[in-house]
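Slide 14.
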Amino acid sequence: MRMSEIIKVDLKGRITIPQTMREALEIRPGMLMVLIADAEKREIIMNPVMTSGETMYEFDILLADRPGSLASVTNVFAEHKADIVASKCASITRGEEANCIIVADMSLSSSSPEKIREDLEALETVIQVKMRRFESRL
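Slide 15: predicted structure.
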């Protein structure tokens, strides 16, 4: 079910998620949220996260824009049992380059984030991988 609301930003830059949305998405007080901002599109994607920020990593992946590229990237995460909790992929230059931001929960992973980065970089379709650990701001 898709929902939409117009909300107001307060003086400190905070927003209140409407109760109907919090209930539908099972968002509870103290829960961590992943925010992915796209300045060019002027949009923010917000996803609830069920685990602690200590195991969350963002992978910023530049890859060839061709059939199968995204599948090979997501297969690496699956092979390492890394849970993709949020992603945003877009073509930069159609048929040439694409960019994917993938936020992964590493708490159940059988590997380190560095090993996943190494395996991503080994893919023929991947051009560059940047990785950072999410720090909780609580």
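Speaker note: The beta strands are 32-38, 43-49, 56-64, 83-93, 97-105, 126-133.
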